[in-house]
Design brief:
Blueprint: H1 5-17, H2 21-34, H3 39-51, H4 55-67, H5 73-85, H6 89-102, H7 107-121, H8 124-137, H9 142-154, H10 158-171, H11 176-188, H12 192-205, H13 210-222, H14 226-239, H15 244-257, H16 261-265, H17 268-271, E1 273-276, H18 286-300, E2 312-313, E3 316-318, H19 327-330, H20 332-335, H21 337-347, E4 361-372, E5 377-378, E6 388-395, E7 409-411, E8 426-428, E9 434-439, E10 444-446, E11 455-465
Antiparallel strand pairs: 1-9, 2-5, 3-4, 4-11, 6-9, 6-11, 7-8, 7-10
Helix pairs in contact: 1-2, 2-3, 3-4, 3-5, 4-5, 5-6, 6-7, 7-8, 7-9, 8-9, 9-10, 10-11, 11-12, 11-13, 12-13, 13-14, 13-15, 14-15
Length: 469
């Protein structure tokens, strides 16, 4: 029986929600071919193409829909994102402002406009200008005030973020939802006792909200309450057994408690694997491929500052490189195929949180590039939605006798504060064309470096799959 167009549209939405963007795009292309005058299908197709980094295609489709009369705020948001991804930054900013002129309370659009200006200029005052002006006109827009505080923190002013949220907390009568955001800000500004008090208040009001419980757990860890943190994390793990961040938090509690289960999860010798990229078809040697990839990535990194809510600091990031039309970018999926499959084969099956998901193959979920100039770094982090992750140096930092391990990958140092503080346990020395593969739940970041050329990497997330690519 042939599916109805309504059924296909619902299926495409479900596939996008599951991260199965390629399948969703195929369905949406079928729908737009069947009904080329349906502007909603065009909107959805453009949004799905944007999900995988096909920004120029998305821009052309959504621009056509707008010219035919589709002017909803959500359509302008898709258009602005596509323009930014297609490097038409001025028009993207104009589109965000047009959207906000009619939807002043749209916190997502405010965040994305501020982020675009920040990444282009590194100017925090200029990036916050539009949201500051809007709040002056709309002083009761609580959501915008929360977003302004979050933006402030993402641009490096943790104390300013906490100050704004403390003021907002007082203004709203100690609203427990605001207490959640204030707890996060207190942690960022290293006021750990305040964070625990705020986190306790937030979780008492919303004990079933996972994000509230998770930030309360980090407040417990920061205050040395590892046993209480373990209890709270077990509830999160029961509801989300594959969430890599929750696994990392549980492992951190175990490390603080001296529990041997930590050592099994963070068994670096068994679970961190370094390998050289394969030479993709079309290049005479790996060096020839790396040279072309390096030149293309250098050209693609257009921004001056880091994006919000990611691990990069004082650097830039570009998404979805394997969805690009640039041959060297598209070929990266082939370059990692051998090393990734070798890792999966070496891992084998088991009953722990990593091996239990091993189905014999893998699926590349996402690939992105990061450029870190001297003094840039990655904060310690995990990849919540992955199974395996990898970082590959395309251009490593210059070795410096005065700065041991400059720019090296480090593992084991938590991305949340702990009492006592926990140090990194394992390091991987960068080398051009060498990728490190590891479980997505492993805390990892970079050692500082202050000299030489910018460090250029490609990172990926991989899901478990029964198919061997």
């Amino acid at each position: 029986m042939t599916e109805t167009v309504e059924g296909l549209a619902s299926k495409a939405n479900a596939l996008r929600a599951e991260g199965r963007h390629g399948e969703a795009i195929n369905i949406l292309q079928t729908l737009t071919a069947r009904d080329p005058d349906n502007l909603i299908y065009q909107h959805n197709l453009a949004a799905a193409l944007g999900d995988v980094g096909k920004f120029r295609e998305a821009r052309d489709i959504i621009s056509s829909a707008i010219s035919k009369g589709l002017g909803r705020p959500e359509t302008l948001l898709v258009y602005a994102r596509a323009l930014a991804g297609a490097e038409d930054f001025d028009q993207a900013e104009d589109t965000y402002r047009t959207l906000l002129s009619g939807s002043a309370d749209d916190a997502v659009a405010h965040r994305e406009l501020a982020q675009l200006i920040w990444m282009r200029t590194g100017d925090s005052k200029k990036a916050r200008e539009w949201i500051d002006d809007t709040i002056k006109r709309r002083p009761d827009a609580i959501g915008l005030q929360v977003m302004r505080a979050e933006i402030t923190g993402q641009m490096g002013d943790a104390d300013g973020q906490f100050s704004l949220l403390k003021d907002l907390l007082a203004k709203t009568g100690e609203d427990p939802q605001i207490a959640y955001f204030a707890c996060r800000a207190a942690l960022a500004s290293k006021d750990f006792s305040a964070a625990l008090e705020l986190g306790s208040r937030a979780v008492a009001a919303a004990p079933d909200q996972d994000e509230v419980v998770a930030v309360y757990v980090t407040a417990l860890l920061a205050n040395g309450e590892a046993k209480a943190a373990e209890t709270a994390i077990n509830g999160l793990r029961a509801r989300h057994p594959t969430n890599q961040y929750y696994i990392a938090l549980l492992a951190t509690a175990w490390r603080l408690l001296g529990d041997d289960r930590y050592k099994a999860l963070f068994d670096y010798d068994a679970l961190v694997f370094s390998a050289t990229l394969d030479t993709p078809r079309g290049w005479s040697s790996l060096q020839a491929y790396l040279d072309e990839l390096e030149a293309g990535l250098d050209d693609a990194h257009k921004f001056q500052a880091h994006p919000f809510f990611l691990s990069v600091r004082h650097g830039s990031q570009i998404p979805s490189i394997t969805e690009s039309n640039i041959p060297a970018f598209k070929a990266y999926a082939e370059a990692v195929r051998g090393p990734l499959q070798a890792y999966v084969d070496r891992l084998q099956k088991g009953d722990d949180v990593l091996r239990i998901r091993n189905q014999g193959g893998y699926k590349l979920l996402s690939a992105w590039s990061v450029l870190l100039p001297p003094n840039g770094f990655h904060v310690n982090h995990v990849h919540p939605d992955g199974w395996l992750s990898s970082a590959c140096h395309i251009r490593p930092p210059v070795e410096d006798a005065d700065e041991p391990k400059a720019g090296w990958l480090k593992f084991g140092e938590p991305g949340c504060a702990t009492d006592p503080a926990l140090e990194p346990e394992f390091f991987v020395k960068p080398a051009a064309g060498r990728m490190a593969v590891f479980p997505s739940y492993m805390w990892h970041g970079t050692m500082p470096f202050h000299k030489g050329t910018a460090r250029l990497t490609v990172a990926i997330d991989v899901g478990a799959d029964s198919a061997r690519p």
